[in-house]
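From the methods appendix. Each design record in this collection lists the tokenized structure first, followed by the designed amino acid sequence. Records were kept in a plain field format so they could be parsed without special tools. The example shown here is representative of the layout used throughout.

RECORD:
FOLD TOKENS (154 positions):
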């Protein structure tokens, strides 16, 4: 058990950088003191400097990442606002178009499409058929008025 406490007399002292560092042991001689000298070596000082610089760079990097995060968050918020506005505009446009289309429905539930393209009869019919429809066949005076009014509003 006595061996366990053998080094209890070790005392470390710190001195100014221009003085020699030393370690003292209870009953040591001058030669033993010179052999047991403990000074931070140049390698240790260089490692501490490198560690300090690395720490400063890491903290700087975290600051830059924080700034970038805030900028990206602001951009995403602006895009979300823009998206919300565009959704509202599209909803309004859809409602307006739907109301306009309902105007062109007559009492039988027929839907009239007025094209701005000038096509001959065959091309017009081919276009209508490609959309699952057909050219209009007017069977009454009221339908003729409805088609003329709808076409004139366009």
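DESIGN:
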């Amino acid at each position: 058990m006595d061996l366990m406490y053998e080094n209890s007399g070790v005392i470390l002292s710190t001195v100014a950088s221009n003085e020699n560092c030393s370690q003292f042991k209870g009953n040591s001689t001058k030669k033993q003191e010179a052999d047991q000298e403990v000074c931070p070596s140049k390698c240790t000082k260089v490692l501490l400097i490198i560690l300090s610089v690395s720490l400063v760079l890491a903290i700087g990097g975290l600051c830059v990442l924080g700034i970038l995060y805030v900028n990206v968050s602001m951009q995403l918020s602006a895009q979300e606002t823009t998206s919300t506005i565009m959704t509202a505009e599209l909803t309004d446009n859809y409602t307006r178009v739907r109301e306009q289309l309902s105007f062109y429905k007559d009492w039988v539930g027929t839907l009239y499409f007025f094209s701005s393209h000038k096509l001959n009869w065959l091309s017009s019919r081919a276009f209508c058929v490609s959309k699952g429809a057909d050219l209009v066949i007017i069977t009454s005076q009221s339908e003729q008025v409805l088609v003329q009014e709808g076409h004139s509003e366009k």
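APPENDIX NOTE: The chain is about 60% helix and 5% strand.
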